[in-house]
Amino acid sequence: METARVGVLFLVAPLVTLLLMDVSNAQIPGFVSLDCGGSENFTDDLGLRWSPDSDMMSGTVANISVANETSKQYSTLRYFPADNNKYCYTLGVISRTQYLIRASFLYGNFDSNNVYPKFDISLGPTHWATIVVSDANTVEMQELIFLATDPYISVCLSNATTGQPFISTLELRQLNGSLYLNQYENQFFLSVSARINFGSASDAPVRYPDDPFDRIWQSDSLRKANYLVDVAPGTEKISTNMPIDVSRDEMPPQKVMQTAVVGRNGSLTYRLNLDGFPGFGWAFSYFAEIENLTSHDSRKFRLILPDHNDLSKAVVNIQENAPGKYRLYEPGYYNITMPFVLSFKFEKTTDSTAGPLLNALEINKYLKKSDGSADGPLLAAVTSAYSTARWAKEGGDPCLPAPWSWVQCSSDLQPRITNINLSGKNLTGAIPVEFTKLGGLVELWLDNNSLSGSIPDFSGCPNLRIIHLENNHLTGDLPSSLANLQNLRELYIQNNLLSGKIPAGLIRKDLLLNYTGNGGLHKGNKGKNLGLIIGLPIGAAVILIAIIAAILLMPKGKKKFHKKEGKPPHRLPSLSDTAAEAAHCFALSEIEEATKNFEKKIGSGGFGVVYYGMLKDGTEIAVKILTNDSFQGKREFSNEVSLLSRIHHRNLVQFLGYCQEDGKNILVYEFMHNGTLKEHLYGPIARGRRLTWIQRLEIAGDAARGIEYLHTGCVPSVIHRDVKTSNILLDKNMRAKVSDFGLSKLSVDGASHVSSIVRGTVGYLDPEYYISQQLTDKSDVYSFGVILLELISGQEAISNENFGSNCRNIVQWSKLHIESGDIQGIIDPALRGYDIQSMWKIAEKALLCVQPHGIMRPSISEVLKEIQDAIAIEKGADALRDGSSDEISRHSAHSSINLGSLDLTPGDNYLSIDDSIAGPAAR
To answer: Is the predicted pLDDT of residue 650 greater than 80, yes or no?
Structure first.
């Protein structure tokens, strides 16, 4: 560990002066406030001094203007390329000191692309959060509490999924040594999920100077979807001007403790969403008696959690634990598992005269620290010698969350350096001895520099396969230890000042060795000294020469491959294209034989009639005969044939061919045994066997994958334009596939939308598209959001009876219920055995999908990710209900008290924490 600290010190030494200057210029000791993209120092209305980040970070500055945000620090931002690199801020800290670090992001459409960015932010090698912008005019904020173990920390942006990584502000706040003290601070960070000031008179948060540590306490008056809803009748706000003794525990600010809510009817109930959960967390309540109770009055209450009676035993008695008025009492849990949706109640005991009181609440999630690369300290020592070079100032861990531009790493949990490429970087002096200690190193490229001295012993790098040291000033003998590298296959040392005899072991190896341009280096007495040795069998040499020739003759340029399936994006020709990729053309007689002269009708609609058939080889087919003989109908037929003959995905109904004879336009598809999703939700099938919630989620996931392929896997992308439950078909295994591409449109490269006559189905039709006649992929997302609401509720998209007198469609009806916190009011009564967390996840994402403006909607990829998360929650819940999962059983051996409807163990961030301190604690 000491070596690691020294290495980090060397790595960031060039920034010491700047960082110390920032801290000393700050009005509050231990505070650093960076105005990202700013150009000057200034002091804001709170008395916080802000400094520009221009001296410590590259990237591009953008100016933005957002109507509801007037703070100067949000008038600029700094953004970075959407590449494979990471971009790191390095800040000085005091080792063994607690800090709060806060990063904020205000998009403001700085790139004029209206593409909401999504990227990762990390603290050193530890993934901190994924930043998902959902509103161009809203500040996204992330806070982390950590114990510094080194003199410096790095905050890095990387891995942009959409848009470009950017940052608006970065703030560091030194905390008092006793704040957030817990047994896990050396292994875990605390990611702030909720910090709430109850009883606040306004929506404004409480922070510095009221909180001397500049924590941000959000007002309980701030109403947003599913945040602090289900408030019990009789809940009343109270306040006092009397000073509160807060000089203990987490030291919440007096202003927060001077307000509270009281349950006059005997209870306080709330529900809120917890960012980052389910998972293990730190949760404490803050109480102070601020009412004038008489000597005959008492205030005693219990915490009530659904399905967890064991947590309801402890009685909260503020007077007993904080004798006298106006004193802090802080009970809570250091180690508790919590769900995504937290429902809780404080209820007075039978012997209490006063209802429960709550001043504040704070919940943080444990975030497992990453150890980073095992080779980090070695590379830190190397970069310290080249502190002014750009390549040496990339910051953070060499491998995580993304590798430095000149490094490649293994995929191990604690990665090792496998490739170093410092070709032509103006290196001088001896080859860094640290490189000889990289046990995982496979390739070393140090060519075209000014390195001098001898070649060191690389015995500490047993995996070395390729070494490039050519075009330097290296001197001395060629070390015999190179022959002992069992995996060495290429050694390039030409154009140096080496001398002596080439070790016999190197000559006998299967090795490509080039030592030309070293006048004093020779093989010995055998053969001519040509300077090139290929120590391979003749056959292998011939193959090698052939491969090299093929590479040299290969056309220049790289193929771009589709990142999701490892294949090139499928480029769709124009509709007039008559390439050999055209669909199979069936003879009408073949269709008639397969369908027994159209004997079995299996579906119908405005498009025509669908019949069942079977080909001679046993393939079951669905035959669609289009009834629209108009020009529009023929164009839709041509459109679907052209599209379906060129797109292929496991979640799109397979198109087998077409037929155009005797004036008939016929499409032939694979037969889907279980009909349409609509039939399973509302038809006769639904009355016999209702889909379970997990089945509905899996169907949604399948359909989302099919749409995602259309949007991102095809070039140009395809907009379906008629996504609805009747166009989602189910095979014999109940896997879903998207069908019916008669109305689909190809997007135009470089265009944000396609101008189009409005087509679609009432109830699923994007209102923005209807008004503007400008079609985008977000129109499909709107329709898919309607489907998600149908899956939750079991209700059709349009109804004159089911949604009450004020609503005619599922979007209006669902929005009224969900935004008021009444999700139970829309859940299909036929559903049983679901987890409310997964239901909330899908309901919230559905509301985002049906936002009135496309720019406010997520991409279908983001929707798919949420569906996958909901499925994971359901599967974890099923395992717990069944009690049959070995994985859950293994985790439960370390589980703590559960909070919420179910104990859902998070997969990636699972942590083992001793049960002995899982119980409630009073700070």
So the answer is: yes
pLDDT digits (tens, 9 = 90+) for 557-587: 433 333 333 334 433 333 333 333 457 889 9
The fold for domain 193-366 equals: Jelly Rolls (2.60.120)
The radius of gyration of the chain from alpha carbons, rounded to an integer in Å, stands at 33
Neighbours of 887 (CB within 10 A): 12
Q: Strand locations in 535-619, DSSP E?
A: 570-571, 601-605, 608-614
Bridge-based pairing of strands 443-445 and 417-421 is parallel
Helices (H), 176-269: 254-257
Rounded distance between C-alpha atoms, residue 816 and residue 807, angstroms: 10
On whether the 2-187 domain is CATH 3.90.1150.10, my answer is no
Question: Which segments of 302-375 does DSSP mark as H helices, in order?
Answer: 318-321
Angle at Cα 105 formed by Cα 334 and Cα 282, nearest 5°? 5
Indicate the pLDDT class of residue 151, thresholds 50, 70 and 90: very high
CA 781/CA 704 separation, integer angstroms: 9
Catalytic center residues: 722
Q: What single-letter DSSP state applies at residue 713?
A: I
pLDDT above 90 covers what percent of the chain?
Answer: 49
Query: What is the distance between the alpha carbons of residues 847 and 545, in angstroms, rounded to a whole number?
Result: 61
Q: How far apart are CA 8 and CA 13, in angstroms?
A: 8
8 A C-beta contact, residue 357 and residue 317: no
Q: Is the pLDDT of residue 295 over 70?
A: yes
Q: Distance between CA 774 and CA 582 in Å, rounded? A: 30
Exposure string for 658-680, b = 16+ CB within 10 A, e = fewer:
bbeeeeebbbbbbbbebebbbbb
Model pLDDT for residues 653-675, shown as the tens digit of each residue: 888 888 988 888 888 989 999 88
CATH of 422-553, one of 3.80.10.10, 3.40.50.720, 3.30.2290.10, 3.40.50.150: 3.80.10.10
* Residue 389 near residue 428, CB atoms below 8 Å: no
Which CATH code is given to the segment(s) 686-877? Answer: 1.10.510.10
Classify the C-alpha dihedral 447-451-453-459 as positive or negative: negative
Domains 2-187 and 193-366 share a fold: yes
> Rounded to the nearest 10 degrees, how much is the dihedral formed by the CA atoms of 542, 545, 551, 553?
-100
Least confidently predicted of 101-105, 495-499, 760-764, 777-781: 760-764
User: Which residue matches tokens 């889907």?
Assistant: 672
Contacts of 665 (CB under 8 A, 6+ apart): 625, 626, 633, 634, 637, 658
Q: Among all chains, which residue has been given the structure tokens 């510094």?
A: 148
Give the pLDDT confidence of 185-197 residue by residue, as tens digits: 889 999 999 999 9
- Pull the structure tokens for residue 302: 């219990």
Class (C level, CATH) for 575-670? alpha beta
Question: In the predicted model, is pLDDT for residue 736 greater than 90?
Answer: yes
Across all residues in the chain, what is the average pLDDT? 82
What the block records as the tokens of 517 is 């341009």
Distance of alpha carbon 378 from the chain centroid: 31
Residue 888 phi, psi dihedral angles, 5° rounding: -65, -40
**Rounded to 5°, angle at Cα 104 from 99 and 107:** 170
Sign of CA dihedral 238, 239, 244, 250: positive
Name residue, tokens 């790095």: 154
- pLDDT tens for 106-118 read 999 999 887 788 8
State the DSSP code for 712: I
State yes or no: pLDDT of 535 exceeds 60. no
Amino acid at 480: S
- Higher pLDDT pick, 467 / 305: 467
What is the spatial distance between Cα 495 and Cα 530, in angstroms, rounded to a whole number? Answer: 14
**pLDDT value at residue 558:** 36
Measure the CA dihedral 582/586/587/589, to 10°: -170
